[in-house]
Structures are given as structure tokens and as C-alpha cells.
Amino acid sequence: MQRRQFMTTAAAVCGVLAAPQWASAQTAKGPLRIIVPYTAGGSIDVSVRRIAERLEPVLGTILVENRPGAGGGIGMNAIARAPADGLTVGIAAVATNAINPWLFKNLPYDAEKDFAPITQMTRIPNLLVMNAEVAKREGIETFDDFMAYAKRNSGKLSYGSGGNGSAGHLAGEIFKRETGLDIVHVPYNGGAPSQLALLSQQVDFTFDNLSSAAANIRAGKLKPLAVTTLERSQLLPELPPVADVIPGFAIDTWWGLVAPAGTPADVVQTLNKHFVQALHSPEVMKTYGDMMMDTVTSTPQEFGEFMAKERARYEQIVKISGASVD
User: Fold this and answer.
1) Cα 67 to Cα 89: distance, rounded to the nearest angstrom
2) How far apart are alpha carbons 40 and 191 in whole angstroms?
3) Closest CA to 165 of 71, 229, 43, 256
4) Residues contacting 269, CB < 8 A, separation 6+
5) How many whole angstroms separate alpha carbon 257 and alpha carbon 307?
């Protein structure tokens, strides 16, 4: 019995000291680290931690590390500068890898060259939402009602966002430009303060992320009126797209997994296989569904091509919005 216990303990120690199965070098030791370039508790962080829990029996200990700041730039820079040995991966999102390259004049990372795509994880529609109490008072039940209301009150309305250059800000500026409405933008330090401002009637509407707004929609505090995807969303099929009024209008939220550039292709493929399997597991899909998120997976090549297309698309959107961060 003692010999068996010794052998088990020795095997466990060797398992810790040896390179993990997905790592590229025999000198690579330690747990898998996933860097999230945003604060803890948000929808990205929660979704990543659910994946980590699902994968720990397969990959061993997984550490989720939050590195917020500079619009996600601090965390993305940490991913880009990490050793390309398969032990550090991170989250690339629409803001960090499609919007920031055109928004920030001095970005500390290269969104095109510094990362090896692994897989997309999700895509979530943004919504045009109002305070439900105000919508009821103004007789607004549909997107058409809102458009009529906005035209009657052009020059009097304001919309909130999570900050200059955020998806909500860009959506608002394109909306203003294409409709010709005079609406004031009020930036806040993050999506949560922006939503709080809407709930307290400090602003008239926002373009919010469905995952973020879902709880207050269910509670009857927010009134969703339209989605910002090109077509109706499976998550809220009753809502029309803003594209019905503004052809081609599409600003939504996505994120996925990347590794530092130079991570060997076989390591990327192994991580892709494990994360895609986890994303399609019943437990994770239920969590994502409860958070009002669509699960989306891809090959590394597909995710890289998708991000390249998104960067090209947002170059024009950021220019139109006039947003800039020094």
C-alpha cells in the first residue's frame, strides 16, 4: 500500500514538472493561463471561467487572469508578449482586435501580427434599448414607435455608451449619421455605468450588449426595441434589426481565443480541439444560452479571416464616428 501511494505521488509530481500535453517545449511547465483583458464579473470573464471549469479535467489547472485597462490594451499586450509555448492564451474581442487598431493612436500591440487565432467563442447582438418606464409613458412599443419618437424629439435626446470608441458609441454615431437625427452622446466609464444611467433616466436610450442587458430586460426595467445584427437574432426573434431602417447596419459583439504569435501550429490545433469540444458541451451551451449568447466556434484559419474582415469593416465605422483616443 505504501509503495502504491509513493508511486501515485511520484507520478503526480512528474505530471506537474513535465511539459503539459499541449505545450510546445519540454521546458514549459505550469498551468494554462487565460488572460482576460477586462474586469472580473463581466460577461466575457464569466464565459471564460465556465470554459475553464469544463476543461480542467482534460488540461489540468487553468488560471483565469484579469488584466483590464486601456480599452483592453493592457491585457492584449500581456498576451502578445507572453512566451509562445502554449501555456498562455487570451481573449480577443471586437473592441481589442477590430476597433482599437483604428481608435488608438499609440496601441501597444499589433492586432494583425501579434496573435495566433485559435477559435471564435461567441457572437452576441447589441440592442437598442430604452428605460421601460419611459417607453410606456411615451407609448413606445415597437422600433417604428421609437423612430417616430426620435424624429419628434430630434435635438432633445441623448444616448449613453460604455465610452468613446465602444461598440455602443460607434452604433450611436452611425445611427445619427444615417438617420440625420440630432442626438447627444454621453460616454460613461464602462457598460455597467451606462446601463445605470439609462435605468435612472439620465439618458434616453443606449445600444447595449444583449448579455449585459438581459437581466434588466427580464425584470421589465429595460425595453428592447431592435437588434444591431443584419438579420433578426435567434435569441430575440421578435425584434427587428436596425438594418430595416439603415441598410447594412451591423455592430455586434464577439470574442474568441488567441495565443501569442509564433505558437506552433500543432499546439494551436490541440487547443482548438479541446476548446471547441468544451464550447459545444451541454453545460457550457446552457450557460451561454442563459447569458443570451450564441455559441460560435471556428478553425484557427476561419477565426483569423473573420478578425481580418472585422478590422477592415471597423476602419470605416471608426472614421465615420470621429472617435479617437490619444
Assistant:
1) 13
2) 13
3) 71
4) 300
5) 11
- Nearest residue to 20 (alpha-carbon basis) of 60, 63, 65, 62: 60
pLDDT lower than 50: segments of the chain = 1-18, 26-27
Which residue in 271, 256, 266, 264 sits closest to 303, CA to CA? 256
pTM of the model: 0.81
Q: What are the DSSP E strand ranges found in 48-153?
A: 62-66, 88-93, 115-124, 126-131
Rounded to 5 degrees, what are φ and ψ at 66?
-85, 125
CATH number among 3.40.190.150, 3.90.226.10, 3.90.640.10, 3.80.30.20, domain 32-123+253-321: 3.40.190.150
Show the 3-state SS of 245-311: CCCCCCCCEEEEEEEECCCCHHHHHHHHHHHHHHHCCHHHHHHHHHCCCEECCCCHHHHHHHHHHHH
pLDDT at 29: 66
Q: Which three cell numbers stand for residue 63?
A: 488560471
Gyration radius (Cα) of the chain, Å: 22
- Spell out the domain ranges in the chain: 32-123+253-321, 125-244
Quote the cell numbers at residue 257.
Answer: 481565443
11/5 Cα distance (integer angstroms): 10
What pLDDT shows up at residue 43?
A: 82
**Using CA atoms, how far apart are residues 112 and 91, in angstroms rounded to an integer?**
14
Cα–Cα dist 112/75, whole Å: 16
Q: Which residues contact 45 (CB under 8 A, 6 or more apart)?
A: 36, 38, 39, 64, 66
CATH of 125-244, one of 3.40.190.10, 3.30.1380.20, 3.40.50.620, 2.30.30.30: 3.40.190.10
pLDDT value at residue 291: 87
CB 127 within 8 A of CB 207: yes
